[in-house]
Fold these 2 entries.
Entry 1:
Amino acid sequence: MADIVHTGRATPVAWQEAATTVRPLLLTLPAALGLLVFFVAPLAAFLVYSVLTAGLFSVTGPLTLSAYGRALGTELNGVLAANSALIGLLAATATTAFALPIAYWLRYAAGRWQLPVLFLITASMFASYLVRIYAWRTILGANGVINRGLESLGLVDEPLGFLLYNRFSVTIALVHIFLPYVVLVLFAGFRPLSPALLESAQDLGADAWQRWRRVIMPLIAAPAATSFLFVLILSASDYVTPQLIGGTSGLLLGVQIQANFKAVGDWPQGAAISFLMLAAFVACYGVTLLGLRLLRLDRIRWVS
Amino acid sequence: MGELMQGSLRSATAGAVTVLAVLFLVLPLAVVVLFSFHETASLSFPFTGFSLRWYESVFASAEFREATKNSLIVATAVSATTLVLGSLAAYGLSRSDSRVRDALALIFFLPITLPGLFLGLGLLVFFVGIDIKLSLATVAIAHFVYVLPYFLLIAKAALDRMDPAIEEAAADLGAGPWTVFFRVTVPQVWPVLAGATSLAFALSFDEFVITFFVIGPQSTLPLYIWSGLRRTIDPSINTISTLLMVVTLALFAIAFAFTLRTERRRDRAVPALQVPA
Amino acid sequence: MKAHRQNSTAGIGKNVDPEARQGHLGRRALLRGCGAVLVAAGWAPSLFAASPEVPDASGVINFMSWEGYDFPEQMKAWREAHGVEVQSTYMGSHDDIQAKILGGGGAGLDLITYGSSYKELYKGLKILTPIDEAKIPNLKNLLPFFASNVQNIWVDADGTRTGVPADWGAIGISYDSAVIAEAPTSYDILFDPKYKGKVGMPDDPLGAYGQAARVLGLDSSKMTEEHFKTVTDWLKDLAKQTKGISPSYGDVSTRFIAGDIMLSFMGWAAYKSFGAAAGKNTIETVWPEKGGGLSFSNAWAIPPGADNIDTVYAWINETLRPDVNAATATFLVGGVVVDGAAQLLDAVTAALYPYDKLEEFFALAPLQQDPPLESDRYVTRQRVLAAWQEVKSAG
């Protein structure tokens, strides 16, 4: 009994044992059923679409892999895919890199500022997505906040044109959209590790590097890796941001998916591109999981 | 002494990054709010003067009220469903064995990998195929699929990292699984669940890509904004956004103030049960 | 009504009049009889002739189109008088319509609009059902140009009507007169190096190809491979002068207002009004002699899933009244399609287009025609759309 009071303070260092007496997987059943009906079924239908022949805004007839051929063979798709990978990686890196210290600070150093700052960060999620993108135009544009500020300080004569309508502005906007989410995820990841536990690790003789490697990293590696991947794929499939502030160089693969579905009417190709992106994501996810497991960073073990 | 200084240096750096990030996040919001009061229809500088005209026109618009009402209905339904089903799923995933768990987790996270457009069109074809009439209900279903991975990511992150020792102890003492869940697990992770639910609400409220395809003859708020893009953009979209932020912040403030008082009261009552703050 | 008819066809002869019965066709009887004839004459046409009659309106119209085309203010009186409710889904781009209807979401949809250049596609996709002209008497109000069957946009070759004009507008070169003192006289100005990065362009592929072809002396609805390449290259070069193609016309106008651009290919006359609302009165639109411009016109149409068709007819009929058309044109910042409406416009809207020389204007800026859906000889619509995606990322 005395143990319960004291062992609230276990140090998470090694592997987690499967614990409770509840059949845990059963709990996932309702959500899984929902997804099965409303996601997997439509997904399967679209998988079938991707191997059918393209009609005009419809699909017909014989099975064929020509849609995948078009998807992989069109030069534009390759260019956009490369652009998406680049911008996606930039956005994901920037977002995760910023979110980590923020989540850390919120959890351990914020004190009474924790809630107000959390508010501010969360508030931006509630400002509509479209409105935020337009706000970036007002900030980065030729007559925008930054340019006017620089001009009034006499630092430039002409407004800086390279701030908007290119890869840079798209990346900035994407980071702005995803940062709050990733902060929340990482904050959730940090939450169970109280400052007291960190201190006790210190008391037990761990120096800063060890604390980082053996306490914080294992805690945060999996959620950080997953959020990184999420930002990457979400950025690549976005089509609104690139068209509003991406100029000609900041267009992403999502734009091509949209064009195929809505304008051109080549549903099989739109589906094929989507599935190829899905496959790429699954591959990256698998590699990440494998990496985490090899580095023994994927689970936390609580040792009392 | 060196250790202490290093500690504060780390905290200071993290603090500085946080300040920069908050400024970065808030600057566009400040622009949004500022221009919601703009006297003319321009969304760019120079800022010519203040006026409440956009607020007046927004509140006077019946389409706006109708669209907002619809968005609220859908978002509430979606966040409630996601909270219940998602928490259960996250708990189930985090307490289960590794191989199955990873495969199942992948399926749960899959919707994020598919663009909203794809999801919307797929669900439209599906609903029509099994003869379900398009309405706010179909929108809610579509949003649930869309929102669930986001919720799961956060909830699972917290649940994974909970010390199971207390749960085990409770179970050893004879508590049934539901008791363990509600009286041991939930009290420890409820702030995270609350945050994830509000995220679910925000995502659903702001969604328009999928919504367009699966909605019936109605409109939601973001659809209303999106359709205005065809003509010129005017600050009424800023007004809508500002109202959203203000209302949400107010709700948050109330909710957190309330729960803070509850937590403090409970902590004062039984110090030993104090959740790791 | 039947009773009326009987009485009047019966004529005065059968009018029961005590004096007449006495075999005495008194003056009173005569007067009364003449009165009856006159009354009958007034009634008769509407009772006998197979003249068009507007169906009764009631219930709900499920509507999908651009925001504003459901005319919340302009049709309010009519809606309230008839107890009609309009439930609208607004689209962000024209392609939303076919995407949604073909995805299966068209059940119960009563009223849509289609742009003049989408006629061929929608006909091919079977989204347009025949419209019974007898139920829209106000069709007679249409201006001659819109009553004539231009390019089979509103009426098929076999005489079936598929659409009723609702509005129109014209696209030329828009420019900021505060920065560019002289009105452009040719499309070459868009390629001037000093305007690099300051040119705008909306994401309207068929319009862009249509206009580009006109400038190059070609016809986008009849392009050979060679023509297609010429036009595509011209557009790619133009795209390099821009900082990205705007996802909508509204977005181009926003960039004008923000000072990000000073010129626009496919410039819409309505920008002047949008700009003025934002405090920028200097956005003008011209139609140079060489290259001219293009017009578009949105038409009401009834999709296959419609179930409240009578009310839709009544709606369309109402919009063709001169006063209503003038009000809607003002609201949409566009052109009127009804005779007599131009005189009812306010100065700003009336100045948008030269109503006194309308036929000439439509020669300079004809209604856009699109590449064919299928063809052995000419480049098809789908290929143009696919090539456009490359134009968007050029530069």
Entry 2:
Amino acid sequence: MGPILRSGIIALLLGLAACAPQYAVVENTQQQIGPLGVNPTQQWNEVPKTHSIGRKPTWTVNGVTLDSLTFFVDVKDGEALLSSQGKEDKSYPTYASDMLPHELVEMVEKTFAVELSANISESGELAPVTFGGQPGFEFEFRYITPDELKRRAYVIGAIKNETLNVVVFQAAALHYFDKILPSARSMLRGASVE
Amino acid sequence: MRVLVSALLITCAIQAHGFEQLPSLVKPGFAPSTHELEGGLWMVMANAEEDLQRSPLLIDRPDLNRYLMDIVCRLVESYCGDIRVYVIRTPHFNATMAPNGMMQIWTGLLIRVRNEAQLAAIIGHEIGHYLRRHSLQRYEDLKMKATFSTVIALGLGGAVAAGGVSPDIANLASSVGNFALLASIFSYSRSHESEADKFGIQLLDTAGYDVDQASLVWGQILKEEDSATQKKSSGSLFFSSHPSPSKRLETLASYANDLTEHEQLHEQGATDFAQAINPLLFTVLEDQLNTGDFGRSRFVLEQLQSGEHDQSIVSFFLGELYRSRNEEGDRDRAAAYFRQAISSDSPTPQAYRALGMIELKNKNLDAAKARFREYLSLQPEAKDRKMIEFYLEY
Amino acid sequence: MSGKLSRLLSIGFIGVVLAGCAAQPTNFSSIKTLTPSVDKEKTIALMPIDVQLSLLTASGVEEPKAEWTKSAEQYMRSALKDPTVANGINFVDYVQPEKGDADFDALNDLEKLHGAVGEAILLHKYIVPLQSKKDKFDWSLGTTAQKLKARTDANYALFLYARDSYSSAGRVAVQVIAAALTGYMPAGGSQVGFASLVDLTNGDIVWFNHLNRAGGDLRTAEPAKKSVEMLLTGMPR
């Protein structure tokens, strides 16, 4: 029995009854996420920590069931993208600084598969790119969450001084991914890394 | 009078074997009235089935479905038209039966049973739930027992994670939701499970399958649990509600013992089975590795090594398993498996790439490049072509 | 698993949660009037109505009722076609494509996307606002919606979702006892639902409404019509 999206939302709503967290607007000025600096070119909202994957900094345009942009910054050798603390039934793949781009792809995909009980349906284009002044990689993959919505993800990242910074943009494959990708991608390709 | 006598004779014959046959409680072609509770359950399941037919997680392979339906029809010919089998892309060991005859088999099960007889044992078990009308009994039972825990649990709250809802939360929500209905469909009581086991093995016997295979399934599951990295799999709603696998193994083995006094064909069907599974083996194993459970994945792959499955794919994923674990010596282990994979008559192209990556890490640039070129020549349309070309410029 | 099943599971929750949101507006729209087709007719494709009726038993378990559900679906459909409700709008039935149809995947995906968009709207318009959309209502299904237009000749599509539960006699007794013991009164049967209108030229959700009340009855024609009227409150005409 897989997860049930609608019930999940309702559970969330109940959790919110007392103190609703806010989805504040992300200003269209330079934003600093750890070592990563980006200049948003469209209206994002900041997702409250309790609603984001592994409490990582996350933004959304249309709401978390439709699209999101998650920053995994300062990942050190031997660490996973997500902490498995309190989630003993989950084991996330860990990062090693000698990983090849193909292995980083695999790590990101596997992390999503484990965290969301998602099926990775297709690995897309993988290509070299400059990210924050470093030789990096960008790739796409498609996955299906148990709510049966087809989703697509765009990932960009690079290793600097053995530390990994990677950003994942995901959205419903229909309409939302194509609509937001160009602005998300150009923002991320222009990111600076301290 | 003659009827009575022959009835007595049957009883005697059965007692001689110590195995009492369970009768079916459903007539072929049965459909409940929409006025009754059972009609309500069927309606819910008919809706669910409609959704299922449109699900992207449904494996749409007519030849595989025909193969599975052939097994159903061989087990219960007269109910063949009342049962529909769906294969769902989920990397855990499970099969379910809904009250209306909709059977779901998860892909994770298909790589865990070793031959057609084992698969038929599971299918027979699920058919047992249907023919003994367990979901209806289960639902009525739960309706009596349900308490205010549902209401209390509402206060727990939860969180949504971007990119799809975090399964923990959704599971929490579903477990406190209309639990009884869910449970009525997906987890039968222990006594129902035992009864379905018995029904399953009796079908296996009449259809001429090797009845010993039924208990062997549970032996395998026990061993897998022992080798699991994460003992409580997220897919194991299973173990909470079912009789323990060791108990089932024991009972099924004793049934088999009683039944083998019959003179039967006792078929295992390993070849047909492997041929039916091979077309989806790559995807299913990829999903298995994506669960991140090293121990389970290794167990499953090593078990497949002794099957008649496509061994190039099996070796490739064994290599992937060690390469991604990346502990002391794993790189060499992985390389050995990848070499096995490419020595096959129809090598898995990805094994060349994987070998290239290992050579690259071992700083054997020329060897790495040769492997990458072989990969690209086998997969000229590869989506990672640009990155591979980048490696080639190293 | 199945979308319909999961929706069924959450009915109780929706009732509890949305009950606390009375102060908020119930419907949102981005247009004032409908654009008629070339032949001057205002046509709306009626998507499969997602409705389910159940009996709330003493223990709080919902028992799905096939017979009730069947008639509720019929009552809701005929209510929509009733001249006093339709009020000049021509509602046409949409038939889901069969497997093998060239649009099978696209239209299935579109219905699933509508589910996710509906959730986003429920979440971010009624419960936790997205600051950037505070004064906007601009969710969309995108241009795949044009495939629906091509199949139905309608300019718009209407999605209706309703869950209705009724208290059994045993349930009423339990409610009284529970209230006495805990001071908390478990919900005793309720009607929840939502409606959304999609512009098929661009896929935009042009109007959205939700319904949540303790009463109502979809089991009989007249009250069912009343519920449909309430669901359609504020719909651009």
